[in-house]
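Assemble and predict.
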Amino acid sequence: MHYEKPTINKIDFAMGSKYGSPVKTQKIRTNIAGINVNELTEKYGSPLFVFTEQEIEDKYNTLYEAFSTRYSDVEFGWSYKTNYLNEICRIFHKLGSCAEVVSEFEYQKARALGIEGKDIIFNGPYKPKEDLKIAVQEGAKIHIDHLFELNDLEEIAEELNIQIPVAIRVNMDTGIYPQWSRFGFNYENNEALEAVERMHQNGKLILNGLHAHIGTFMLDAKAYGMATEKLMHLKAIIENQFGYEIEYIDLGGGFASKSNLKGVYQSSEVIIPTADEYADAITNAIYDNNRSKKLPKLYLETGRHLIDEAGYLLSSVWGYKRFPDGKKGYIMDAGVNLLYTSNWYNFNIELDKRYEGENELSMLNGPLCMNIDIIEENIMLPPLNRGTVLSISPVGAYNYTQSMQFIRYKPAVVLIDKEGNTRVIKEVDDLDTVNYKEV
Amino acid sequence: MHTITQLILDNNVAFHPMMGNSYKLNETGKEIIAYLKEGQSKDEIIQTLSKKYEISPDELFIDVGDFFAKLRIYGLQQ
């Protein structure tokens, strides 16, 4: 005879609405890019990060087309910090991206992947001088963050007896809150112009670019329009006053992905600007504010928008218990140490098949022996079995790079290529990995 | 046990007239309520279900235990 787990649920007549019943709806994902999720975990283990090349390429092409059809001289720099798994970086470089790095480690990673210095944008507030010198010698695009770095570069210029082409990072009010004023020199209080003046007096550096990174998960494309307008205005002043030719402007990253920011109740489909809206805002502002004969090259360092939706974490139910308040608590095999962005985003959590029974209020906890290990505090789920595989997405941005080995080993990462083949691009950690470099 | 006997079952819905609450049950849930009304203990119910569905008592101990926990939370079982 057919057995169903016994269920009893108090009927709450207030729960029904015109949007349907929360006790019936199940979000289901049987496969990722055509590959069954259960087959993936059976073959490669659980938990498991999964990336799909096709989704990366689709997002890249959509964004690139939105910009390149409006503005021909545009180049994307792959934001290593967003996801620096080698294979992911290779995919973006193959698509045409240069590298955007924010540390000596990321710089070395890009070089190890065969990226030439001239194709590396070196951002970030901390650039050790010896690494800065290497980047200078290799022709990287250095974006100066503060005056100490400016001094370091001038010393390097003297040591090498050369003039170094550089860009400066500029922060500004673009009408968003909170305003990011940590990176670079401020626009409104003339700090940026003072830095240029200071650079000009010594003559050891040649300013050829302006950069701004105005924020992350930006829900208003107009902010980019304002940032571009201010950079173009600054460009005109610098070119007039100091005679530098600003060859490029770089609008940084921050385009949103279709993730659900906590505390925002509209669907991500509704609130997130499209690629065309971002492109319109930036390119129109360039055309409207250009005062030079030549238009500048445009760089973008889009990370999250391009990779987030191409990444999934598969996690299996290990067990469940009933909490004293009536909520059902599932113990999953993946925890918040793998899902850094769970602090800010509500994930899309999908079941591997349709389950019998009505949904009830549940909590998803990870395997960490820590009370904070909560993947989802309140989620309506039907009775799940031990071994049920949940797909957690989007997790392509920042989760793997910021995940940490803690209590359990870091899981494997699998790539599904465009032909539908699956392969491990990072093996699961083991004791040797964890003990490596301990003395 | 006293409160369980007061549950009125109609299809998949049970109504408790004293508490004024309604509950939705699936087939196995209804079976357990029927066994409880007959006076079977939790262990006896596990054995009965194990024989009927050919499922290990250890697995049923978790599922039936969870069902009993819900009954306690709803005030239907001591």
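The interface with chain B takes residues 1-11, 320-322, 324-326, 328, 356-358 of chain A (CB under 8 Å).
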